[in-house]
Specification:
Radius of gyration: 17 Å
Largest sheet: 7 strands, antiparallel
Structural class: alpha+beta
Distance between the termini: 49 Å
Shape: globular
Strand order of the largest sheet: 1-7-6-5-4-3-2
């Protein structure tokens, strides 16, 4: 099972803004190109995206379906790779002080992908996820956020 985490220097709402922008999907998901909304409104329950993934000379046309969506907290997806089967991708956003601890959990769900799943596949997914989370963090952290004004007086000692 491929599980990774990353501390993103933005609050969960800012991370969710990037996750919920279907047009930015290909900017952070490694290997993805030509992503476009297919059905529903991303990331509402049941919404889908269609996209291509290039693996060397092979191009796969995939579809991802939103299976669970709790704004600023959880996004669970099912990536459908056709003949290779499907994978469950769970993204959890936890407040961590003023930042976000993002936990990414991906594993095969249906089809032959599960039979082919092994330690070597997990190692490759870890490398892919490290890159993916670095890209996602960069997109979130570079995004403009309105400045916060602190209200109130410091407590006296």
């Amino acid at each position: 099972m491929a599980v990774r985490h990353r501390l993103i220097q933005k609050p969960p709402e800012a991370v969710w803004d990037v996750l919920s922008d279907a047009g930015r999907f290909e900017e952070w998901v490694v290997g993805t190109s030509h992503a476009e909304a297919d059905e529903g409104t991303w990331p509402d329950l049941g919404a889908t995206l269609r996209y291509e993934i290039a693996i060397g000379p092979v191009t796969l046309r995939n579809r991802t379906i939103v299976r669970r969506s709790e704004p600023n907290t959880v996004l669970e997806l099912e990536a459908d790779s056709g003949a290779l089967g499907t994978a469950r991708i769970a993204i959890e956003l936890r407040p961590w002080g003023e930042h976000t601890l993002l936990i990414l959990d991906e594993h095969p769900l249906r089809g032959p992908g599960g039979a082919l799943h092994n330690g070597l596949v997990d190692a490759a997914q870890q490398i892919r996820h490290r890159t993916m989370l670095r890209r996602l963090a960069r997109l979130c952290e570079e995004a403009d956020e309105p400045s916060r004004t602190r209200v109130g007086q410091p407590r006296s000692a």
